[in-house]
Amino acid sequence: MRVLACDGIHEDGLALFRNAGWTVEVSEPIKDAAKLAAKLEGFDAVLVRSATLVSAESLAKAGALKVIGRAGAGVDTIDVEAATARGIAVMNAPDGNTLAAAEHAISLLFALARHVPRADAGMKAGEWPKAGLTGFELEGKKLGVIGLGRIGATVARKAQGIGMEVAAHDPFLPASAAGKGSVPLMALDELLAWADVITLHIPRTKETTNLLNEARLRTMKKGAFLVNAARGGLVDEDALLKLLDEGHLGGAALDTFVTEPLPKDSPLRGNPKLILTPHLGASTGEAQQAVSTILARQIIDFVATGAVAGC
Ligand code: MLT
């Protein structure tokens, strides 16, 4: 059996493949669909993170391919319909990076509240940039969590631990779930108008693309903050820039973008009210070790016995 590991898959998972007798080939991200199609010929499995996009075109010659493994939570970078039509299973490892993603969202909250990146940049530029960097305290502030799945619920629990008042909107939870957990559920517009800070933890789908469009961003409190460490495209980036420039929003932290890597000339890069990180949510040693080993076990098992997990 042969597996192609793109996008920097943790070595511990690759070792499991080798121990099971598989041949492992490691590759840089393959962005070009035609190149990926040519490369996939003869492989039984391919592993990706968020850089290599597995489109229908890239599967054109993948006659031997049995499994596409996403070493992470979402499968939005894979054309699942095209894979299914070709009889290729798609697996992810949604449990492995929950803590990493939640902790990154919390770190962005603190960074926004205390201007950490601007303070650091000023110090390294030889300044003592104390004036103008007065922040705010998170304790007592209202955090609106959009998406109360694994990551959103972990963010909610951690935010409650630092004394934030937390409420959530979850498009996938039935209304009957309201009042059952420790996090009150609200309608989206109600949550947006209530929160001092909004944090997103939902997948990108047809329904959630541009969920926070200009009209919705305008319903946020004046001076409110936004964190998106979930998926690019959930927030309309142009509208966000407009509302930051107008002073309607106090600031935002983005870890995910409509186009990744973020183009060098993106106007997002020049906005002082924005904190930007390069899709680092899942990038801890612990999370990468976990997702690669979970995925390797699932795939080895699937190919040997047909057992299906993480689909
Ligand atoms: C995920 O889907 O869990 C992450 O976006 C994957 C990653 O960046 O490795």
Automatic annotation (TrEMBL):
EC number: 1.1.1.95
Region forming the signal peptide: none
Top class in the EC scheme: oxidoreductase
UniProt keyword Coiled coil present: no
Any Gene Ontology biological process: L-serine biosynthetic process
Catalytic activity: (R)-2-hydroxyglutarate + NAD(+) = 2-oxoglutarate + NADH + H(+); (2R)-3-phosphoglycerate + NAD(+) = 3-phosphooxypyruvate + NADH + H(+)
Entry's transmembrane regions: none
MF annotations from Gene Ontology: NAD binding; phosphoglycerate dehydrogenase activity
Pathway(s) annotated for this protein in UniProt: Amino-acid biosynthesis; L-serine biosynthesis; L-serine from 3-phospho-D-glycerate: step 1/3
Keyword terms, alphabetized: Amino-acid biosynthesis, NAD, Oxidoreductase, Serine biosynthesis
Protein's job: Catalyzes the reversible oxidation of 3-phospho-D-glycerate to 3-phosphonooxypyruvate, the first step of the phosphorylated L-serine biosynthesis pathway. Also catalyzes the reversible oxidation of 2-hydroxyglutarate to 2-oxoglutarate.
Entry's family note: Belongs to the D-isomer specific 2-hydroxyacid dehydrogenase family.
Descriptive protein name: D-3-phosphoglycerate dehydrogenase
Organism: Arenimonas terrae
Lineage: Bacteria, Pseudomonadati, Pseudomonadota, Gammaproteobacteria, Lysobacterales
Part of the whole protein covered: 1 to 311 of 520
